[in-house]
Amino acid sequence: MKRQVRVGIDVGGTFTDVVVVDHATREVISQLKVPTTHHATEGVALGIINAIARALAELAVDPEDVVFIAHSTTQATNALLEGDVAKVGIIGIGSGWEAFKAKSDTNVPAIELAPSRWLQTEHVFCQGRELTGDYVDRQVETFRQKGVEVIVASEAFGVDQDENEIFVSERARKAGLLATSGHDVSTLYGLRTRTRTAVINGAILPKMIHTATMTDECVKKAGITAPLMIMRSDGGVMSVDEVHRRPIMTMLSGPAAGIAGALMHERVSDGIFIEVGGTSADISVIRDGQPQTKNARVGGHRTYLNTLDVRTLAIAGGSMIRESDGKLVDVGTRSAHIAGLSYACFQTPERFIDARLVHLRPTEKDADDYTAIETTDGQHFALTPTCAANLLGIIPDTAFAKGNTEAARLAFKPLADKLGKTELETARLVLDISCRKVARQLEELITEYHLDRNTVELIGGGGGAASLVLFTGELMNLPARLARKAEVISTIGVALAMVRDTVERNLVDPTPEDILAVRREATEAVMKVGALPETIEVQIEVDTRRNLVRATAFGTTELRKEDNAKASTPDLCRASAARSLQVDEGEVRLLGQTSGLYVFGVERESSPFFGLFKKRQLAVRITDKTGVVRLQRTQAGVYLTDIRQVAAELDQVITNLTDFGDAGRSLPDIHLLAGSRIINLSGLAELEQVLALAQTELENRPGDEPIVIIASRK
Predict the structure, then answer these.
(1) How far, in Å, CA of 694 to CA of 649, rounded?
(2) How high is the mean pLDDT of the chain?
(3) How far is residue 91 CA from its own chain's centroid?
(4) Of 696, 606, 677, 707, whose CA–CA distance to 289 is shortest?
(5) Residues contacting residue 226 through CB under 8 Å, at least 6 positions apart
(6) How many C-beta neighbours within 10 Å does residue 339 have?
(7) pLDDT in tens, 482-528
(8) Is 0.85 surpassed by the pTM of this model?
(9) What residues does the Hydantoinase A/oxoprolinase domain cover (predicted)?
(10) CATH 3.20.20.20 fits 267-495, yes or no
């Protein structure tokens, strides 16, 4: 039988990384790096195809055996950062009493994307009754003469009645201009923010359509029949047709790819993912197997673009060390890459015999206290956290950042002498300053997202991960580890990513029928871009404070047979749970199971109120049959039932665990285990909503199928 593969491509500013993953086993079977071809006639597409051709040839894999291919791109983000955008013409629409406000809300002024780089706009407003083909044609021609390349149609309440926005967009396209609209980018009320989001979407439309089309054509010419998918900012992928409609969704997809790798390759359920490069580190939270998201801001303005909540720090494996008057001033923000220097630890030790410490400015605007090591032949090399970690023996032998320990020691000696310390003391001081910056951000995230320190682990990705993540874990007394193939975790994330889309609706006191309707809409959205119905799962969240219902659907474009060879024994799964619970295996009990999941737990005793009372609580870990922890709770109840009895059992459990307070009642967090699925019902606000969604998720399953309910108070 022929081997089927998945291909992931990460297009960077300098290099394009490609990984090939075995479709059945999800193992990486090839990885390579080629220069990014910015200046080729085909653009970056040429580098992508050259890399794919090389990888498939080396593996003797036919193009038709590629079942999935996707790439992430920084083009949308770079276009906005560099101001390389199209001028946008806005046609605002409104009728009746709301027309005056709609005229103001659709008039989006020029947006400063970077110093002296602007997204330019033009605006007209039309009463709905005056909207005719002749009117639109005249306005489009006027806009064209003013240099407009893209038309945005935006109407008050266009999310409910989109006919006028569609009419304007179609007329603009017939006239030869690109077009987008408010309802294309968001289904939320809020005309000003929706219009602004559409304007940003329109501004990057020409560049993104050109790149996506060129790449898609190259993939087809290579004989690959699988549809090309593009990485989204929320960690999923979208089709080329969707990029033509909503290119804004590809913004910030670089960090999103790393998160996708942590979720799909490392199977992280609760943790903080830290992707460390040479210049910066991106930090994100994963909770209950889901990345945390927020609305993006562009030019300081809020949009309706839902992106991963990524915190970026100017500290990384290549950050340079700053020294003045015999004191270590700081580490960063500039990196060796910016200064054009190689890392000292990747050289031979002999280079640094009789070397001396020098100071320099990485750029003209920088202070002159950045250090470098000058060798006897006049060459300069950077001292970095990677060099420090190598000197301290922290970096594993198999890590990408592994260098020469003796070279690091000799290179650190001139700096250590200047500080009056030993080489090891100096290296530890460098890492302490570097990693405390990371630790401060991690503490903020733990507090902000109410993370349980007993369940949090740090997972490092990127080429520089070994330099910072393991030492940060030591500082914070948190478990820390490196992702497998950490240096290409982002590219692996692209190869393993799922089709994903989110539908949001503003609904006051939504009924169960309302919620199911939003769920169906999200399901249809991912089916439209290629997800197979039998692979689709939907996560529902109801925010009563904002009158918001959000449905996030995800699925795959192909079926995959389960790899039974990877299944572990119950005892090995128990051992995995014990490691996560940090107890001996003998203390862990098997509390329940489904055909694809085990539920393990251990009872713990706590002493609140200064030890005056004793309180017993059940800590729970759910593993799949391969031993991967899929869900964890510090305190939870476990209830065994079946399909026939699940509604009554849910009713009883929720009634018993619901809290009442000044802000109303708060339902417990609820997860249903069915087969190999973990169905999250925690985002709902009313019992009736939970029961209706549970019924939908469990329909067509046999009545005697075992179900496990995991419940915990919020």
Answers:
(1) 12
(2) 90
(3) 34
(4) 677
(5) 66, 67, 68, 69, 557, 558
(6) 18
(7) 999 999 999 999 999 888 888 999 999 999 999 999 999 999 988 88
(8) no
(9) 194-501
(10) no
